[in-house]
Specification:
Order of helices and strands: EHEHEEHHHHHH
Structural class: alpha+beta
Strand content: 5-15%
Strand order of the largest sheet: 2-1-3-4
Helix content: 55-70%
Distance between the termini: 31 Å
Shape: globular
Radius of gyration: 18 Å
Number of strands: 4
Largest sheet: 4 strands, mixed
């Protein structure tokens, strides 16, 4: 059965690999699964056909036969469970990798996304600088904790896993802030993720969509 995912027709990240379909593309590339992409306009994302797949009108979605999934973390988890390469065989190591998946999305991502919201939606408010400083402090607290845990290791728990895939995807959202560079081991960790051939293939595919939309 052919896998089909959805993605932005015109990505607001301008092809920087930050839209959440990137995580799904990367996971599929890591496990060697071919997939099709259905591009959606912002209008189409709010229409009944898409809302039947994604009740919140977002991307990505994942379709395979009669299975339809939404939420990037859940989709990556499904891919990792059904194809070798993203979760360890050992039961305890597998459980730890899944824990890191949840940590990436539930602990690390919220303050990082909060920063993006503050910058783009609240930049003209009188209290913006104070709020941004508070958010950055929350991010630095989490990065400090993660930096200590990673130490000098290449990946979070032994071999590269879905936990690393999601964690790197989340940390990439700090590009341009200068914050990640304050933690050399995390900066190098993200660079290792970007250097993976599967990441590069996924990035190129997502960038191609933006490039085509910009020149079309």
């Amino acid at each position: 059965m052919t896998i089909t995912i959805t993605a932005f027709e015109r990505s607001p990240d301008r092809g920087k690999g930050l839209a959440r379909d990137m995580r799904v593309r990367w996971a599929l590339e890591e496990v060697g699964q071919a997939y099709n992409v259905r591009l959606l306009s912002f209008k189409a994302m709010k229409e009944p056909a898409h809302l039947a797949l994604q009740p919140f009108g977002q991307i990505p979605t994942y379709e395979e036969g009669d299975l339809a999934l939404f939420e990037s973390g859940a989709i990556v988890f499904h891919i990792a469970e059904h194809h070798a390469g993203l979760l360890p065989d050992d039961a305890k190591a597998r459980a730890r990798a899944i824990t890191w998946m949840f940590a990436a999305l539930a602990t690390m991502e919220p303050p990082i996304v909060d920063r993006a919201i503050a910058r783009f939606a609240e930049g003209n408010e009188s209290w913006y600088e104070q709020r941004l400083s508070m958010v950055d402090d929350r991010i630095r607290t989490r990065l400090s904790e993660l930096s200590v845990r990673l130490g000098t290791d290449d990946w979070l728990d032994g071999a590269f896993s879905a936990g690393d895939l999601l964690m790197v995807s989340v940390l990439l959202r700090l590009q341009g802030s200068g914050i990640l560079e304050e933690y050399p081991n995390l900066f190098a960790y993200v660079a290792r993720g970007e250097e993976r051939p599967a990441y590069q293939r996924a990035f190129a595919a997502q960038l191609a969509v933006f490039t085509a939309a910009s020149t079309g």
